[in-house]
């Protein structure tokens, strides 16, 4: 390869890195987000093209892989339903992780005794990539309902994980000092297996409602794994892109944890059940919930001048987003100001509710953040809570013994009237009683969320 | 390129990532996540090197599998993000 070619390739990587940075920056603004995504994709194309000039003695395998991967990716992206988006993102993320693991493995396979730093990078790519892959698969299973979304706690969970991690570290030390030979290869394969098990064991105990944190964290891992792969190949674009993803995943993880008032360690190592849904709490929730018929709810809404709709995972389960949007439009035509208040951890991935409502053609301006809505909650006539529970539970403010005490919530109870659409009186994911349901200004609309919203819409249409 | 310099780039890029992401509104968290998820498929560059290095059969299989997975991540990730972003609309009615 001539020097000029190498310079051009490096310039290509530089251009790709700049495009990635611009792309991510633009993803932060709704008006330019789509363009940002395209720019980032263009960066990827530039990076792959540049890599083609230095990667390959033999293109047979490369082309085969690219074609197969593109076809699968294309079909998957075209056919996936919007409601299945959380598991799709988890799955794709896992594929990035396993790819980094395989890059590390292939490198070890072809040159086990490369220099020390490269060997360390190989081990990191295998460990982080492996955890990202198997962890994402478990997350996928939970989100798709293929395995139980409830936290599955194994006793001494944390200890088992620590032991596995320790085994990986010891194996890694061995490989750093003695990389060659058949025993070393065995140790390497053991590390691969342990990394994959570690991912499974870490994510299995985490419950469905904590998935936003897990997905964000695994996203970060797959980025860091790509960075590690960059250190193996001494390739700048891999390092830049990987660390950008790593950083963004970590920030999202932090935001999600903050929105639940829990530390990352608490999310990772103790399912909510372990926190012991307080028996002391139920004692303090007294009073009877007041049911209301759809017809009476209609009169309440008909008179309302401002309405805030608070969706939760229950809306996604009931597939009620289109009906909800229809109700919102009718209320607007009726002269009410309608907004949708969305808690940062509502749903199963960061921003889940926003995507569902956007799919149902709710305007971007109507999607409000928790902090925008809370200060004006006293002036809101009616708050409609649809399939949300823990994120509107005033116990988080009022009851110190509650497991969710201190979690920032949407203060729907401060609105003049609260309509709660709920299937039954069962507790939310956290297993915590919700004093909201028995408050003076709360009315319960029992039944399937979609059917109930459709009844309300029908009431408006009849009149 | 020397390892020191690469490490320098790594740390700098992390800081840049933190600065870029901190201000993203929560409405866009899902597309942001799936967009950066597609970006983590950059490992495809490493996969190409592994698949095309003319190694023995197992090496080629490992490399090719890496290329397949990374390509699914990249292609699927960008397309899915695009689909989601296309749904976010403003009052003006124009879709961006």
Protein topology:
The complex is a heterodimer of chains A (463) and B (96).
Chain A: H1 3-27, H2 30-55, H3 59-79, H4 85-110, H5 116-143, H6 157-177, H7 182-203, H8 211-233, H9 236-260, H10 264-269, H11 279-284, H12 294-302, E1 306-311, H13 313-317, H14 321-333, E2 337-342, H15 352-359, E3 367-369, H16 370-373, E4 382-386, H17 395-398, E5 417-422, E6 442-446, H18 449-462
Parallel strand pairs in A: 1-2, 1-4, 2-3, 4-5, 5-6
Helix pairs in contact in A: 1-2, 1-9, 4-5, 4-8, 5-6, 5-7, 5-8, 6-7, 8-9, 12-18, 14-18
Chain B: H1 3-21, H2 29-39, H3 44-51, H4 57-87
Helix pairs in contact in B: 2-4, 3-4
Features:
heterodimer, A: 463 residues, alpha/beta, Rossmann fold, 3 domains, 18 helices, elongated, B: 96 residues, mainly alpha, 4 helices
Order of helices and strands of chain A: HHHHHHHHHHHHEHHEHEHEHEEH
Largest interface summary: A-B, 112 and 83 residues
Kindly state the number of beta strands of chain B. Answer: 0
Q: Please estimate the helix content of chain A.
A: 55-70%
Number of helices of chain A: 18
Sum up the overall morphology of chain A in one term. elongated
Mean pLDDT of chain B: 87
H/E element order of chain B: HHHH
Strand order of the largest sheet of chain A: 3-2-1-4-5-6
- Percentage of residues in DSSP E strands of chain A: 5-15%
Instruction: Give the CA-CA distance, first to last residue of chain A.
Output: 78 Å
- How far the N terminus sits from the C terminus of chain B, by CA atoms, comes to 40 Å
Hey, roughly how much beta strand do the residues of chain B contain?
under 5%
| Contiguous runs where pLDDT drops below 50 for at least 5 residues of chain A | 272-283
Mean pLDDT of chain A: 87
Contiguous low-pLDDT stretches of chain B (5 residues minimum) are none
How many individual helices of chain B?
Answer: 4
- What general form of chain B does the structure show? flat
């Amino acid at each position: 390869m001539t020097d000029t070619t190498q310079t051009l390739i490096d310039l290509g990587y530089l251009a790709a890195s700049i495009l990635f940075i611009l792309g991510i920056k633009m993803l932060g603004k709704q008006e330019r987000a789509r363009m940002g995504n395209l720019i980032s994709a263009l960066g990827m194309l530039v990076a792959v093209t540049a890599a083609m000039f230095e990667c390959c003695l033999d293109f047979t395998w490369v082309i085969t892989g690219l074609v197969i991967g593109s076809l699968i990716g294309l079909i998957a992206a075209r056919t996936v339903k919007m409601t299945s988006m959380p598991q799709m993102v988890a799955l794709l993320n896992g594929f990035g992780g396993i790819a980094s693991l395989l890059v590390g493995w292939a490198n070890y396979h072809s040159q086990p005794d490369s220099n020390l730093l490269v060997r360390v990078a190989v081990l990191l790519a295998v460990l982080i990539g492996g955890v990202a892959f198997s962890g994402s698969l478990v997350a996928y299973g939970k989100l798709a309902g293929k395995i139980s979304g409830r936290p599955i706690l194994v006793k001494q969970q944390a200890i088992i994980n620590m032991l596995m991690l320790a085994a990986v570290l010891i194996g890694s030390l061995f490989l750093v000092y003695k990389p060659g030979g058949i025993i070393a290869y065995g140790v390497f394969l053991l590390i691969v297996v342990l990394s994959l098990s570690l991912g499974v064991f870490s994510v299995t105990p985490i419950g469905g409602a904590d998935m936003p944190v897990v997905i964000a964290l695994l996203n970060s891992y797959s980025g860091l794994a790509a960075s590690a792969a960059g250190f193996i190949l001494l390739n700048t674009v891999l390092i830049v892109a990987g660390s950008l993803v790593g950083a963004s995943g970590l920030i999202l993880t932090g935001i999600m944890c903050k929105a639940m008032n829990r530390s990352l360690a608490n999310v990772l190592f103790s399912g909510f059940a372990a926190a012991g849904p307080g028996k002391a709490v139920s004692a303090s929730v007294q009073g009877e919930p007041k049911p209301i018929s759809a017809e009476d709810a209609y009169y309440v809404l008909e008179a309302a001048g401002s309405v805030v709709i608070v969706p939760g995972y229950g809306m996604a389960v009931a597939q009620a987003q289109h009906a909800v949007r229809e109700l919102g439009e009718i209320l607007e035509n009726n002269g009410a100001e309608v907004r949708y208040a969305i808690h940062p951890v509502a749903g199963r991935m960061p921003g889940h509710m926003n995507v569902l409502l956007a799919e149902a053609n709710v305007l971007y301006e109507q999607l409000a953040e928790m902090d925008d809505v809370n200060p004006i909650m006293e002036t809101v006539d009616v708050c409609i809570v649809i399939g949300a529970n823990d994120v509107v539970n005033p116990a988080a403010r009022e009851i110190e013994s509650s497991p969710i005490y201190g979690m920032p919530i949407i203060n729907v109870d401060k609105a003049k009237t609260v309509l709660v659409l709920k299937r039954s009186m069962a507790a939310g994911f956290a297993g915590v009683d919700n004093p909201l349901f028995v408050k003076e200004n709360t009315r319960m609309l029992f039944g399937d969320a979609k059917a109930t919203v459709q009844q309300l819409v029908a009431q408006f249409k009849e009149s | 390129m020397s390892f020191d310099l690469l490490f320098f780039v790594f740390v700098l890029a992390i800081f840049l990532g933190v600065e870029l992401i901190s201000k993203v509104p929560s409405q866009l968290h899902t597309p942001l996540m799936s967009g950066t998820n597609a970006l983590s498929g950059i490992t495809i560059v490493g996969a190409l090197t592994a698949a095309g290095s003319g190694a023995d059969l197992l090496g080629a299989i490992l490399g090719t599998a890496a290329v397949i997975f990374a390509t699914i991540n990249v292609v699927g990730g960008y397309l899915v993000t695009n689909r989601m972003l296309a749904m976010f609309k403003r009052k003006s009615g124009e879709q961006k």
